[in-house]
Amino acid sequence: MLRKLVGGILITTFTFGQTTANPQFSVIGDLVIDHLHKNTSLLSSGIEMAIQGYVNPFARADIYLHKHNDSSPIELEEAVMTIEKGLPYGLGIRAGKFRPDLGKINKDHAHLFPYIEAPSGMAKILGEEFWSATGVETNVFLPLPWYSNFSLSYFDSGIGSHDHSDHEKDEDHDEDKDDHDHDEKDYGSDKQTNAFTVRWSHFFELNDVNHLELGLSGYSGQDEGILGADFKYKWRPNKYRSLTIQAEVLQHSLEDEYMKKAVHPDEKLTAAYAMVNFQFNKSYNFGVMVDYWSLDLADDESMNPSIFFGFSPVEESAVLRLKIGQLEDADHHKKHLKTTVQIIWSLGPHKPHRY
Amino acid sequence: MISFLFGKVRIVSSTTDIADIVKIIGGDHVTVTSIARGNQDPHYVEILPSYMVKVRKADIYFMVGMELDLWAQQIIDGSRNRKVMVVDCSVEINKMEVPTGQIDASMGDIHRFGNPHYWLDPENGKLIARMVAEKLINHDSKNAEQYQSNLTQFENDLNSAISIWTKRFSDLRNKNIIFYHNSWPYFSKRFGLITVGFLEPKPGITPSPSQLNQVINQIKENEIEVIASESYFSDRAPKFIESKINVRTVKLAQSVGAIEGADSYINLFETNLLILAKAYGVSYD
Predict the structure, then answer these.
(1) Helices in B79-195 by DSSP H: which ranges?
(2) Top mean-pLDDT range of A250-259, A323-332, B26-35
(3) Is the Cβ–Cβ distance between B191 and B162 less than 8 Å?
(4) Which one of A149, B33, B238, B283 counts the least CB within 10 Å of its CB?
(5) CB contact under 8 A, A239 and B44
(6) What angle, 0 to 180 degrees and rounded to 10, lies between the N-to-C axes of helices B265-280 and B16-26?
(7) Is the pLDDT at B97 greater than 80, yes or no?
(8) Among B155, B127, B5, which Cα is nearest to B65's?
(9) Packing angle between helix B16-26 and helix B122-139, nearest 10 degrees?
């Protein structure tokens, strides 16, 4: 029902609100080289196509299509209409398929990560490609002296029912290096439940060069819930120098089954990451990240540190990234060093930001 | 809130140059905030949510236009301000370097509608001021007389300054110069400088070692005495050239507040011209 309603809104808006101006069209592609267990693999994590533009003076539309690799089909990652102008009381509406406002990282596309891959703990909760669903979000810009935004969303499917094509992607990997991913794809694939999210975020301009963001998030699906908090501090004295410190934690109250294994009905999966990224001139950035998850009652946890490096010769139209990090086996018996190199490029105005 | 209580017109502008002109024309009847700082590159401004708070209650937003401040639209949209009037200050400008033929990213960071650094010609400052006055009069007609009077005063001040600069700095005419980025065609045309080249091989592209060697050869061939760069660029490339060959490097104010002394629209030109006159060693009294 919700899909039909959202589809109807989008079709009506495009049909009756279409202007003669063409939308912006962008493509981001990348090549990833992984080295693990003395094996080097060359793979593409795909192409992202973005079509963006104003539908009318009040609404804009953003469509993102993602092809994960050579053998995967083109998937609709987001197709969302956003109304930010014309509504009373500072209200805004998003409708369509989009990445819900849950935590800080879920809304970010992978090419924005300076550390190449999504933190594994976050991926355990949100899915390898993160959570995208069909729904409606209303958000309000609160009348406070600082930026404060409150959003409430309803979706036709919960986190467990995300359907990403990392299935195909995983098949291209060396089997034992991606135990986590294989487990991930099975996680709750048969669930089809409605869900709600809520987020309250704040942005403080401490002065011209110091900024602080704080956010609280919540998710409620059938018999499951998530609570989250996030933090980001940025020092940016000029265009080519910045220090970013970002951390986020999500706690997922699990049902009696997780990854097709029975768990205690009170089990909680806690995932967190903390990152420091320093951009020291126009072309280079360097950072460290710690990625963590734990299952409370099962007494199972994993912590993986990594360092990353980025080089962008020409603004953000081409970026080379390197990450060296620890990766644990699924049973935590062995820790491995994984090296990943990513070359990422873009055509059009939608860029792979470095920081 | 205070400005609301006292009935002032709330203005936000993309850059400090426009903000300064708005302050002069609007006087006590306006409050004005600039999104970009004077020492910031106006091509790339990171969009912060706090900017949306600044625009949330604004009555008028003045943009530079010509695709220089493309980021402004996202700030305006994000502010959810249904009533803000958005004004493109470039509408009346006689635009320079409008590209012809197909434009693509291989040409660097090129602007489809021409070089957007038009405020660096003081004559264009008058056009911006007229645009500002017109919009303020439309929005706040009860103070129209004051706005008109402030405009006339500003035009007179600028005319007299241009006349003085033209005489005082006449020795700068026909001097060859190399700039870091192509921000200065309007300025050069007004004050008679001849731009021989740029440190950037293409707009927005960091100079490579081979480009710097080419520039060194250019300096030798054309007997160039000065390399000028915007305040936000690193000194590294100009200083490297200075260490290899007899040339002086200076930083100019591309906007109000970019460097010491450039604290108003008129002082921006006074400061830049003085820096150049000293660098060339020409008289300016």
Answers:
(1) 122-139, 144-168, 185-191
(2) B26-35
(3) no
(4) B283
(5) yes
(6) 130
(7) yes
(8) B127
(9) 60
Domain formed by B170-280, architecture: 3-Layer(aba) Sandwich (3.40)
Q: How many Å lie between the alpha carbon of B250 and the closest alpha carbon of chain A?
A: 19
How close does chain A come to B282, measured CA to CA in Å?
33
Sequential DSSP letters for A322-352 = EEEEEEE-TTSS-EEEEEEEEEEEEESS---
- In sequence order, the β-bridge partners of residue B7 are none
A230 — phi, psi (to 5°)? -140, 160
Closest chain B residue by Cα to residue A347 = B105
Interface contact flag, A149 B105, Cβ < 8 Å? no
DSSP 3-state of A203: strand
pLDDT surpassing 60 at residue A187: no
Indicate yes or no: CB of A283 within 8 angstroms of CB of B48: no
Place of tokens 């024309």: B25
CA distance linking residue B269 with residue B177, whole number of Å: 17
Contact B52 A141 (CB under 8 A): yes
d(CA B12, CA B16): 10
Question: What domains sit in chain A, N to C, each tagged with a CATH number?
Answer: 2-347 (2.40.160.10)
Closest by Cα among B213, B232, B192 to B39: B232
**Among A27, A85, A151, the residue to mutate for chain B (most B Cβ within 10 A):** A85
Q: Given an 8 Å threshold on Cβ–Cβ distance, is B50 in contact with A146?
A: yes
List Cβ neighbours of A252 (8 Å cut-off, separation of 6 or more): A125, A224, A225, A226, A268, A269, A270, A271
- Residue keyed to tokens 């870091």: B180
Comparison of pLDDT for A161 and B44, the residue scoring more: B44
Among the listed residues A165, A167, A168, A91, the one whose alpha carbon sits nearest the alpha carbon of residue A132: A165
> What's A89's DSSP letter?
G
Pairs of residues, one from chain A and one from chain B, whose beta carbons lie less than 8 Å apart: 59
Tell me which fold the domain B2-90+100-164 belongs to: Rossmann fold (3.40.50)
- pLDDT recorded at residue A161: 58
Instruction: Give chain B's length.
Output: 285
pLDDT in tens, A224-275: 899 999 999 999 988 788 999 999 999 998 777 766 677 777 788 999 999 9
ipTM of the complex model:
0.79
The verdict on a CB contact (< 8 Å) between A240 and B234 is yes
B40 contacts on A by Cβ (under 8 Å): 238-239
Please report, for residues A192, B12, B32, B45, the alpha-carbon distance to residue B61 in angstroms, rounded to integers and kept in the order given: 46, 5, 10, 16
Task: Note the Cα A41 to chain centre separation in Å.
Answer: 24
Number of Cβ atoms within 10 Å of the Cβ of B4: 10
Q: pTM for this structure?
A: 0.82
CB contact under 8 A, A314 and B205: yes
Residue B284 has pLDDT above 80, yes or no: no
Measure in Å the smallest separation between the Cα of A209 and chain B Cα atoms.
Answer: 11
- Please check whether residue B76 is in contact with residue B61, taking contact to mean a CB–CB distance below 8 angstroms: yes
Residue A192 binned pLDDT confidence (cut-offs 50, 70, 90) = low
Copy the structure tokens of residue A33: 């080289």
Query: Do A238 and B82 count as a contact with CB atoms less than 8 A apart?
Result: no
- Among A54, A239, A312, most B C-beta atoms within 10 A, so best to mutate, is A239
Range(s) of chain B covered by CATH 3.40.50.1980: 2-90+100-164, 170-280
Q: Which of A208, A213, A282 sits opposite B37 (nearest CB)?
A: A208
Contacts of B79 in chain A (CB under 8 A): 141
Whole-angstrom Cα distance, residue B285 to residue A205?
44
User: CB–CB of A203 and B50 under 8 A?
Assistant: yes
